[in-house]
Amino acid sequence: MRIPILAGNWKMNKTAAEAVALVNTMKDELLAVKSVERVLCPPFLAVPDVSHLVAGTEIKVGAQDLYWEKSGAFTGEVAPNMVAEFCQYVIIGHSERREYFSETDACVNKKIKAALAVGLIPIVCVGESLSLRQEGRTESWIIGQVKAALDGLTAEQVAGLVIAYEPIWAIGTGLAATADEAERVCGQVVRKTIADVCGDAVAQAIRVQYGGSVKASNALELMGKPDIDGALVGGASLNASEFVSIVKSSAQAKGLS
Ligand code: PEP
Hints:
The chain is α/β, with parallel strands linked by helices. The chain has helices at residues 16-32, 47-54, 80-84, 95-100, 105-117, 130-134, 138-150, 155-159, 179-198, 200-205, 216-223, 240-253; strands spanning 5-9, 37-41, 59-63, 89-92, 121-126, 162-165, 207-211, 230-233. It has a single domain (5-253), classed as TIM Barrel (Alpha-Beta Barrel), CATH 3.20.20. The structure holds phosphoenolpyruvate.
């Protein structure tokens, strides 16, 4: 059984002080939902404070990015071992980074390898734009992104990744994919591609999240789908009661306490 993973991507929101306040408002309720993995991904400058606040608990911390080089003259970047000092997870290849910071599939692959090298678990984002969807190219696009991300990884490494299927047209728009559509892409496209590349055992082990306008009102239906192993949550993760409700719904949907 794959343990569902619910990750809150706070994006470029919350100062360190605000992040601490937000964690304090939801920490106890998040800790009560023991059956799913709970990950908070604050902006870099809030990561150390959040990490200290949840140290010794089951709440994990994720970064929103890293750089693939180990150290050196890369002004503004954050090295893998710097992230690993505070985090267990790292989001890689979010569509906002691909769009606004020109991240390519090759760059995403390098970041995944760099993260794995320091023991971080990558949450690898893939997803199609509205125009690709309208052109009927969703499947081929996602297959290409998944294959490029996995290039050069061992089957064991792939099994330990988290893939977040995040249709770009659903991110921050309030228009989530339907549960059936999200399930179809997570299962028949993402998991099937992994099966083709690494075999069925790996495809059954890897966790595939859905992301894109997940909120308290749609989480139960989305998380009830068998090929959806949790969610990457943006906007709603900045609201303590919404995020807690999504986490609770995911446990309920999977028949977990
Ligand atoms: C995201 O940024 O990963 C995301 C899914 O955002 P939202 O939930 O706001 O659509």
